[in-house]
Design brief:
Elements (H helix, E strand, L loop, with lengths): L7 E12 L2 E12 L3 E5 L6 H12 L3 E4 L11 H6 L8 H9 L3 H13 L15 H14 L4 E5 L7 H14 L2 E5 L3 H7 L2 E6 L2 E7 L5 H5 L15 H6 L14
Parallel strand pairs: 3-6, 3-7, 4-5, 5-6
Antiparallel strand pairs: 1-2, 7-8
Helix pairs in contact: 4-5
The protein binds adenosine-5'-triphosphate (ATP).
């Protein structure tokens, strides 16, 4: 679908984004339309979290949010951490009661979500006793539990293997019409997403359909990386290294 036919959700028009006096992205121009699946790439410090934070502010309650450092409470059980996604929807009394004695309906909802995320049987376990990958899935569960039309994720699949990453991204897709997800898995950016935004040196240097890009172009976003550079004509071989054919087909892709 052409951009003009899609509903515009957010537009930046030469704006400066940053933190107080520190400008990170001095003249950002981009647009996010309903229905887009955007991979946000750039090396550490490029400004991915800064951009996601601004999107989050502008989209407000339309967007579910999965932060980079999870923001989970280690002493609380998985159930309570996921339930926190909807704290604002309940009264303080209901939230307090739920803390002591979980309410039946949310318990069922959270249990179903945790089943889908491979966290079955862990609802009562304190998050502090989980592995890094399990914590990451709890953070995703909490964002999914918010039940918003958009999903903003700051490296939500950073600590899982490629197959699990794709499964989680498919689950996120199935529950949101639009997403912007920061990640470092360049192959996934090309194979799973509609569009790629690439940040480098304070600028948006890539804003293009994923199908028009090569791994070599994405590699150029990481000037400090030691990784072997890929030439454009090795794209298929590199994507094949992920064995995408063995994985479930992402939405909208043949
Ligand atoms: N709260 C803050 N106050 C001041 N400067 C900040 C703040 N948060 C981030 N920065 C700075 O803004 C720049 C961009 O940081 P940001 O976290 O957006 O990058 P990133 O691409 O998300 O990095 P990473 O991949 O390491 O998470 C960095 O120079 C960082 O030091």
């Amino acid at each position: 679908m052409e951009d003009e036919q899609r509903r515009l959700l957010v537009r930046f028009d030469g704006e400066a984004l940053g933190h107080g006096a520190q400008v990170v992205l001095p003249r950002l121009t981009l647009a996010l339309h309903e229905g887009e699946r955007v991979a946000l790439l750039g090396q550490s410090g490029a400004g991915k979290s800064t951009l996601l934070g601004e999107l989050r502010q502008r989209l407000e309650h339309q967007a579910a949010w999965c932060p980079q450092h999870h923001g989970l409470v280690p002493q609380l059980a998985v159930y309570h951490n996921v339930f926190m996604g909807r704290l604002s929807e309940h009264s303080a009394l209901a939230n307090l009661w739920n803390l002591i004695r979980p309410l039946r309906r949310p318990w069922r909802e959270v249990a179903a979500l945790c089943d889908e995320l491979g966290l079955a049987g862990l609802l009562r376990r304190p998050v502090g006793q989980l592995s890094g990958g399990q914590r990451q899935r709890v953070a995703i569960a909490r964002a999914l539990y918010q039940a918003r039309p958009l999903f903003l994720g700051d490296e939500p699949v950073a600590s899982v293997d490629p197959h699990q990453a794709l499964r989680l991204l498919n689950l996120i897709d199935s529950r949101h019409t639009t997403s912007v997800i920061a990640l470092h898995q360049r192959e996934l950016a090309l194979t799973h997403f509609d569009r790629v935004w690439g940040l480098r040196d304070g600028r948006l240097v890539i804003d293009a359909p994923a199908t028009s890009l090569t791994l070599a172009e994405l590699d150029a976003l990481y000037p400090d990386a030691d990784a072997t550079r890929h030439s454009p004509d090795t794209r298929d071989a590199n994507v094949g290294a992920l064995d995408v054919n063995a994985l479930p087909c992402p939405r909208g892709r043949p």
